[in-house]
Amino acid sequence: MPELPEVHGLCMYLDTQLHGAVLTEVRINSFSALKTADPPFTALEGRTILGAHRIGKFVCLDADGLFFIFHLAKAGWVRYTEHPSSAGLRMGKSNISARLLLHRPADDAHIGVDLTEAGTKKSLAIYVVKDPQDVPRIATLGPEPLSPDFDLDALAGIVGSSSQQIKGLLRSQSVIAGIGNAYSDEILHAARISPFATAKSLDQATVARLYESMQEVLVGAVNAAAGKPSNELKDTKRSNFRVHARTGQPCPVCGDTVREVSFADTSLQYCATCQTNGKILADRRTSRFLK
Q1: Whose CA, among 46, 87, 174, 198, lies 20 to 30 Å from 146?
Q2: 135 or 121, greater pLDDT
Q3: Can you spell out the DSSP letters for the chain?
Q4: Quick one: pLDDT at residue 185?
Q5: Can you tell me the mean pLDDT for 20-29?
């Protein structure tokens, strides 16, 4: 799933490519993905894209008074082309959920953007709204972790008031916006914290380490994504991981084997030496440590 750094990089790229372009046609190929009906998506046609920006994990295209907003979910992505196809889309017969056709007057270019989603479980969500806050999941987002207002005290207040496991807390979008499964693994590894530690049990020094690691990991990933075209962002993300999706490989910090805990539809990765004092975490289906 694209998270804060990749969505930020994607918005930077789309802003560069689409700024000033006029939406000539909007095609929705998966009406289950379209979550709004008023305004109609056709109201976007003829409007100029004034910019693209990120809100949490959402991409927001400002179409001169209307907003085309989408969340890529687990398997969604964006395909940008300078040679868009004019062929019609067969409803439900493609991995393309939506297609935007645009004309960029600055260089008289006809360009296109496809929203794609792999797999059979379709979760990509599209909204056409007058105000981004009209999207329910945006209205309930927590603070942005890279915002100037998000300091150590802000994180300490969040952590100190929660009985949730720290891994789940970091992933909760209503608590902190933009962090998902991958970067929570990376942040906790950098901070040397067990993913199953109870948030409010963390002492002051550990919370400070968590804050520093959060800033270091996210800023580094944002910088790595900056300037990359959409078709390179996924590889850039994977290439910088230390533990996430590296099960069985050596930890780059201590050399121990990166381990995994599997859940019904996801998994986490961690280093026992760096994060759990050498204890190997059991699969959460057993809810205990392996001895």
Answers
A1: 198
A2: 135
A3: ---HHHHHHHHHHHHHHHTT-EEEEEEES-TTTB---SS-GGGGTTPBP-EEEEETTEEEEEETTEEEEEE-TTTEEEEEESS---SPPPTTSSSEEEEEEEEETTTTEEEEEEEEE-SS----EEEEESSGGGSHHHHT----TTSTT--HHHHHHHHHT--SBHHHHHH-TTTSSS--HHHHHHHHHHHT--TTSBGGG--HHHHHHHHHHHHHHHHHHHHHHTT--HHHHHHHHHHT-SSTT-TTSBPTTT-PBEEEEE-SS-EEEEEHHHHSTTPPBPPTTT-SB--
A4: 98
A5: 96
